[in-house]
Design goal:
The complex is a heterodimer of chains A (about 250) and B (about 300). Chain A has a six-stranded mixed β-sheet with strand order 6-7-8-3-9-10. Chain A has ten helices and ten strands. Chain A is globular. In chain A, helix 4 packs across helix 5 and helix 6 packs parallel to helix 7. Chain A is of the alpha/beta class and about 250 residues long. Chain B is an alpha/beta fold. Chain B has two domains: about 220 residues, 3-Layer(aba) Sandwich (Rossmann fold), CATH 3.40.50; about 60 residues, 2-Layer Sandwich (Alpha-Beta Plaits), CATH 3.30.70. Chain B has a six-stranded mixed β-sheet, with helices on both faces. The longest helix of chain B is centred in the middle third of the chain and has 16 residues. The radius of gyration of chain B is 23 Å and the shape is globular. The chains are: A alpha/beta (about 250), B alpha/beta (about 300). At the A-B interface, helix 6, helix 7 and helix 10 of A face helix 5, helix 6, helix 9, strand 12 and helix 11 of B.
Chain lengths: ~250, ~300
Amino acid sequence: MSKLANNEREVVISATELTKQFGDFIATNAITFEVYKGEIFGFLGANGAGKTTAMKMLCGLSTPTRGSATVAGFDVSTESEKIKRNIGYMSQKFSLYEDLTVTENIRFYAGIYGLSIPAIKEKTAALLQQLNMESQKNVLVKALPLGWKQKLAFSIAIIHDPAVVFLDEPTGGVDPITRREFWEMIYAAANRGTTAFVTTHYMDEAEYCNRISIMVDGKIEALGTPADLKTEFNSETMDDVFLKLARNAKRIGD
Amino acid sequence: MIFAEQLTKSYKTKTEEVKALLSVDLNIPKGEMFGVIGPDGAGKTSLFRILTTLLLADSGTATVNGFDVVKDYAKIRQQIGYMPGRFSLYQDLTVEENLQFFATIFNTTIEENYSLIKDIYEQIAPFKNRRAGQLSGGMKQKLALSCALIHRPEVLFLDEPTTGVDAVSRKEFWQMLQKLKSDGLTILVSTPYMDEAEQCDRIALIQEGKILMNNTPKMVKTSFSDPLFAIRSDKMYQLLHDLRDFNLVNSAHIFGEYIHISSPVINQEVIVEKLKSNGHDQIQLKQIDPSIEDVFIKLLMHSESHEQISE
């Protein structure tokens, strides 16, 4: 994106030898990487590679055993509460309250993130207009088509203008047009300076990211732009890159 | 082997009627691998439930191996294997007990049909004493497939078998299906993932209960008649808006690292010049072959129903 074109890259996520160990099992093994402001960063790995554990540490939900990381300038070990206020999170499994209306969901999450009442009013109006959902504002979320839910969930996840938004398989199962509308929203947010940290199983989803890291058995085995990785691994597709790396995995499944 | 004519099904909620299937026709010959491709909520699961005799259609008829899905449901159940979208084995039984259970209810034994599942079951056999609930996604999938095959069915129905499993397991799973197809099984499989469509002999693209296209993957792709190009520059987000705002092309959609553009006529020089003068650098533009996803997008853009949703 345009942010990447200039040389002054502001680091938003920085991990150094970040490690999480459960007994003898090293779930995340000394990973080191940086993610920049306004970047869309794909965080990939097979089941059991250690993605979830790493992401929990970056969200301030799990304390590292060794190593360190900062997110939006805050230390994950000592400033986890500040991190939680400066990130957004969205996954297919956890997003909105089905029994609340569109407006109620917006008000609820905006309140949780500490927005003032006038700010909530302003944000709600802007968001409904952006999503073209003014006529649906009093509809229960469960009555919305899946695509609309996803777009609403994403808008709500960034309602507090977080430095980083974590997205877990954001576009699985939606139709190809909704999927593109969704990626356009992610691109727009990135263009405004929000960093998107995307975890996914699906390599075609990974191709939308500026840079991608691939974890195998707790370690980051590859990191680069989709084009660079394809060249490095002499592959036509990201799927092929991933298979070449993950085939060597020793860990089994989840 | 599978035949459906004008299948229609709707569900009523308090406030509205949701049409799950609208006049669906299918004709799948023996030994074919047929893919039903569409997003969540397109009607895939309703179609599978009707064909596996678990749900009654509002109207229309269907037969499986010559038997009517309503009148002859008991016969059909003996001859088909069904792997539902949600993991439906007994979590508290071990791997081996689950398999034993399914063999018993079909009046057979694991030994009798072991040759069919050997390649698949051997991969999970080291965990045969583990409870099914404790298995990883990929292993659950292999166990579910083994259980669906243990009575040596003639038709296999797989509803989104690869949703939520990683790329390695997905690849292995499709290899297993190809092997089963070569053994003569007829397979009906659904998926929301366009890249898996290539594995099938024929596919139906389905959205909002309607089949938009039904053909071989190759013919589906050939149906995209306009020239298609992939373009990128150093300013991707701006590029998307510039392509649309300057009316340079009929359609522009982001597609991974590139934006796919199409029009009846594409004048490459005009596009590149216009973009350069608007500040784009490192412009790459190349003609490409359409993928199934490109076709699906085009069909959806033309379908009235989606316009209502996106407007």
